[in-house]
Amino acid sequence: MGYAYYPGCSLHGTAKEYDMSSRACLDFLGIQYRELPDWSCCGASSAHSVDHTLAVSLPARNLTLAEQMNLPLMTPCAACYSRLRGAHHALRSDPGLAKKVLTVLGSEYKGRYEPLSILDVLYQYGPEAVGEKVTKKLKELRVACYYGCLLLRPPDYAKFDDPENPGKMERLVETTGASAVDWPHRTECCGASLSLSDTKLVVSLATSIVDMAVRHGAECIVTACPMCQANLDMRQRGRTKLPVYYVTELLGLAFGLEPKRLGLTTHMVNAISLLRAKQLA
Amino acid sequence: MIRVGVFVCWCGSNIAGTVDVGKVAEEAARIPGVVHVEQNKYTCSDPGQDSIRKAIKEHRLDRVVVAACSPRMHENTFRKCAASAGLNPYLVEMANIREHCSWVHSDMSVSTPKAVDIVRRAVAKVKRCVPLHPSTIPVEKRALVIGGGIAGIQAALDIAEAGYDVTVVEREPTIGGRMAQLDKTFPTLDCSSCILTPKMVDAASHPGIRILTYAEVEEISGYVGNFEVRVRKRARSVDEARCTACGICILKCPTSRDSEFNMGLGTRKAIYMPFPQAVPNKPTIDREICRHFTAGKCGICQKVCPSGAVDFSQEDQVLTEKFGAVVAATGATQFSVEVYGEYGYGRYPDVITGLELERLISSTGPTDGKIRRPSDGKIPKTVVFIKCVGSRDENKGYPYCSKACCMYTAKHAILLKEKIPSASAYVFYMDVRAGGKDYEEFYKRSQEMGTRYVRGRVSRIYPLDGKLIVQGEDTLLGERVEVEADLVVLAAAMVPQPDAPEMARKLGISYNQYGFFSEAHPKLRPVETNTAGVFLAGTCQGPKDIPETVAQASAAAAKVISLFAKSELSTNPNVASVDESLCSGCLWCSNVCPYKAIEEKIITERAGKETVTRTVASVNTGLCQGCGACTVACRDGAMNLLGFTNEQILAEVEALCL
Prior knowledge:
heterodimer, A: about 280 residues, Glutathione S-transferase Yfyf (Class Pi), Chain A, domain 2, Rossmann fold, four-stranded parallel beta sheet, 8 strands, globular, B: about 650 residues, alpha/beta, five-stranded parallel beta sheet
């Protein structure tokens, strides 16, 4: 048993630290996984808004590969998660499309396993069980959990949690001993899709999200999406700058793993100084 | 020799637009047994019916086929027409070439041969029709009204005024229903209590009306004119005859819970009256929380009662009574707005529903009529109203329009301005639907008082520094809107009672996909149901405001009165009939009968030289509704539905398929 691990392009590039920390956490918890051999683009780039068949065929190829391994496909990236779930959903509910995609791929996708986010995998492992593995409590760290859009929407298929009032990330984060603040902008749009085309707008969105977190007493933001992380990390222009961690980075810290192994040194907003100040790193 | 007349209807262009009526008539004339064919623009009209009567006489017709619309529409019309020409009405057959043919096709080359087939089928059947004769049943001239809201009260008063006895069964401890919770009513802003409570008293004191509160209908059997109804009157634990309603028991009771009447915004005691004007004006003990019942302790109310009215040993009473007609006035409830996570109802105390605001405005409410927000009791300065919460939303709620919300939101905005002149009100709306007498003017008035109407939906509400930040879109300006509000009011949709399907089953009536009871015809029979003798009043049939509810209740009462005006009723002769010579007495038919209309019967007959006794099925024609389930279950072919016999149906199949 175990999972097929799908990193996607972000985790081989801008979100390298998400890949590092995900693998480190999975290894530490003893969760079996194998990187999907010969994986290809999930279609989250521009493909999904250009051609529907292509938008489904791209993720379907990866889903089919995993199914042939008899393993559920898991990905840390929220955008990959969205594309994989969307394709899974479309292929299972639209036989006409499934037929078309079959001619593209040459092999059938049966849809035996739901594609999962790494958060799903951690939930299957169990928040209590994760908590038991914590060796270094992240006490007094006040965290704003930020879900963004792709993990929760559209709720027809990408339903990791309640789309309007999610709470699963908080539960995971609190197993580390950190406290999750109650704040309203957990599911606001960070504007990542316009990051290059309308940077001014995105700066205002990202800044308002970070400011709201500051206003509610957060010292850092935690996310599970490479787009959200990069965008908030780069585009915040508020008076107080908050480091933006991946959920796996915080978990890794709580497991007592080396900050460097988790990629904490690669952030735009210094991700180490807060931890040093709290004597957590 | 059978002589069939076929009358092909144009139905204006409804049929003639897509079916070649001339061709159908031509083909019909060739069918064996058909001796006369005619076409008419509107066969149902007076000249159309006259031509049928004339033809019956002139051509000595003994069977009639009308190729027109659905039998649900006009079968009765043509039966009456044939009867007036001396023909037994059950020798008329409809060929539905409208709903089943012209309306669903656009290609005349397809629809015309199909129409011919449909006519051929009807001719084949009508040739095997035999005269049927209705019998009569007596009518019990007492009405049952289920539900004691404004619909039930109005219907009961109207029926009782005509001189017939009425029993109202209400499951709450008081009559009054939703209207009792309202403060003022649109579009005239007269106070709800001032117009409702006198009616409640009228109903309670009317010699022809008996009110059973804290009671529920458990079972209904029988048929029009002769319903047998079992009612459970729950134990109130207070002797209504002895109680003087002094209220000391309520004062001294140590246990309380959220008040249902105040929508959870206040509390009530374990022994309680929902509101001071309750009818009957007697308290009830809520056994779920009363310490005497939960812990075996207390009993203070009994000790302090000066008239010895508290009776913990009281038991539920089960009454079984006969009624001739039933009015369902079971009302509706509010949509569970928690579904809209983005509005945060349940998480943020200052996000409330319209009914909750009614209680905050009402002088009998938890704040004595001062609009205070639930979280900190402060007077709100900015109030946002959101319409269509649960209605007109296929994703999270229901697709239908809840109808009353546009007007009650306008009312809320006006009342807010009257109570707090400095307050500002924003209404987020999709459309403003103000169809109704004086409604548009009323909506205008709310605008003139300064209410800002914003066309668009709210995407999110979140609390910030003691305010609620309401984010939405103004779709007219194409801009994002953000309002810092103190209070947000959700116009929750009216939805069916959760147990409406169960009540429909008890009543033997149908309901729509949402759970609202179905009327027999949306336009022409709006208060009748498909079960004779059961009528509908109020929001159990669909969302309505008070004027419409009252009008419908009076209409239902009129139907009951016209039913009771007859001393006996003629029954539908399309009932099941047993051929005893074929019946083996297995009684499978009785198992499948939904109306409990089939009993076993012992017959004695001669078989050769011996006399044998055996069991056969026997149909109670008063109970039988002619559904035909038994005819399918019968393995001997002994059961037949008169007017739809096995022989007739096989003849139809042959005509269509061979």
